[in-house]
Design goal:
The structure is a homotetramer.
Chain A: H1 12-26, H2 38-45, H3 49-61, E1 65-68, E2 72-75, H4 79-103, H5 108-122
Antiparallel strand pairs in A: 1-2
Helix pairs in contact in A: 1-3, 1-4, 2-3
Chain A binds a DNA duplex through residues 9, 11-13, 37-39, 47-51, 53-54, 56-57, 67-73.
DNA sequence: GTGGTCTAGACCACG
DNA sequence: GTGGTCTAGACCACT
């Protein structure tokens, strides 16, 4: 369910955060669901507990989770909020890429066609993992 | 002509490389044109010469420029090659973003519409800088 | 009558102690009155009995209550003692805050005015809960 | 200039943050001034670099400082912003304490007199440390 | 058992 | 030199 790519230049703790956000967005983790404990997850992923802790702290800081001392970490966000904020972020990146594509004089239709391809390739199946 | 954002998390030497690539793509730097000297650029941008050097080395490693000992660095690529490699890279990023947008269940048409907006917003003027 | 804020960084057992102290100070709990049993309170507040126990033990250690084996916990303090110790504690915190306000160069009169506001806002009604 | 109380229940990294905020507020650290490096401060205070790092990261997250990779951490805030946010925070604590003092039936004038005492005791001299 | 904090020591990319 | 990340292992308060 949670996968880490050690070769990725993105830090492990960020990958962890992304993984958990995705689980929440997909509905695999619902509001007030408990996250795996720091130690347990550290065990499963063979990662240092401090790294998990850093990811959890940051998630809490972002208001996506909350923690109760001695009890664990729990999901705070509902899907709607998280989705809209993620969507906004992705559109921002899309703007940057579009800007560069324009400078490369790549025609608008070619980009849209690519989008179409990606959508066909990935459509469905995502919830079955 | 070359702008650096020190607060950007992207390393300065990468920003430099991107800037130079863009200049080549736009036709501001043609094949066999000489790049500004390390010292001169370091002076203008108030950047450590090592950083300029690193960018130049990397550009050379990528085959985009070549250097002549004691003479300087020069543009090697023709536009066609550079454009296609940049385009490929951007399409790769586009694939990643599309994948995430699909998981967010953002409709294909909404994404395409956004692309359209960005194209309208940036069209023209970009080549005059 | 007793309210717990699970998200507060202050430990639950301390919140419990504060709650009980307040009840005693307000006269809702008199000398030799019996405190609710650990089990009952744990039930009502949906809190781990160990946590209640810890609060009660600490209250006893502070001489505010006493316990009779097999019978329960009872109020020991009279109002006068408790009030003066609480008052001293609050004045201590006030000293700390004043010190920081002085460093911020907040004028003495502005602070006093704020105190006045708080007193007007909370005056009356508080004893009826 | 920076003092840590190891017996304080407040974490070291928070004490560090408070110290630095105070330095900024007092004008000892101005906008774009460089903070001591993580390693240097760790050395001076005999504290683990990771702890310093945590404090610096949090300060940066709060927008009080910014960091340039490979160069150091620098002050971002100007006095005005920081002061007003700190002031607001202190008044919040003051409200809590006032509320409790009211319940203890401590007369408003006694509190104001205390404030007066604290102000007389601490006035001046703070900038000479 | 839980999360929160801290130390010690290491490696990396960047300038 | 700098900050950023990670590991390993420890202690604490709280439930």
């Amino acid at each position: 369910m949670i996968t880490i790519d050690y070769k990725d230049r993105k830090p492990i703790y960020e990958q962890l955060m992304d993984n958990i956000k995705t689980l929440i967005i997909r509905g695999a983790l619902l509001r007030d669901d408990q996250l795996p404990s720091v130690r347990q997850l550290a065990n499963e992923l063979a990662i240092n507990p401090n790294t998990i802790q850093k990811a959890y702290s940051e998630l809490e800081r972002q208001g996506i989770t909350y923690s109760l001392k001695g009890r664990g970490s729990f999901v705070a966000s509902n899907l709607v909020e998280l989705r809209s904020s993620q969507k906004q972020l992705l559109f921002g990146e899309l703007a940057t890429i579009s800007h560069e594509l324009i400078q490369l004089e790549v025609p608008e239709d070619e980009v849209k066609d690519k989008i179409g391809e990606f959508y066909q390739g990935n459509k469905g199946g995502e919830l079955d993992d």
